[in-house]
Structures are given as C-alpha cells and as structure tokens.
Amino acid sequence: KKTWSEGDLSCSNYCCNPDDDEFGNWCFVKDEQCEEASWGYCKPAGGNAEHRDCTDLQGWADIEGDGCGSYAAQGWCNADGTPGTGWDSEWGNFVDF
User: Fold this and answer.
1) Looking at residues 8-24, what average pLDDT do you find?
2) C-alpha dist (Å) from residue 64 to 33, 43, 51, 53, 71
C-alpha cells in the first residue's frame, strides 16, 4: 500500500521505518492472502545491505521459530547460506535447522 497508518505509525511512500525497526523499512501489503502476512520488509533500493546481506524468504522460520532477521542479527548464517560466526556447533548441523 502506498499510504498506510497503524496506531501512531504512518507512511506515505510505500515503505518506511516509523518505529526504527532494526531490520529497516517495512510496509503493509495490499493482499494478505497473497503475502501470507499483513506486512513485510522492503527490499532496499541499494541492495540488501540494510538486512546485512541476508535474503529473506517471506514467512521462513527454523524449527524453533527463528526467522531470517534473527539469523542475520545473531550472525548465525552468512549471506551465502553457510554457518556464521554466531553458530554454535553444539546446536547440531546447520542444515537441519
């Protein structure tokens, strides 16, 4: 949606970050049935640097419920999909999560 508001938050240019979300700009979607969510992060104009080079898959979560944002923030994975410096081998095989 180009213009939206929710409580004290509003945006007039599709994607904004009115709540200073640590993962960047986000927006409400036009069709929740299509997107399977009422909102989503916006792909930054200059690439994925805003998401620390993490490529999100809408709605993806590991077996414990952590999503791509958590993986990027904690350093659990690298942009190429390999385990990051934050991954602890005691947790098991990275691919199994």
Assistant:
1) 85
2) 24, 25, 21, 22, 12
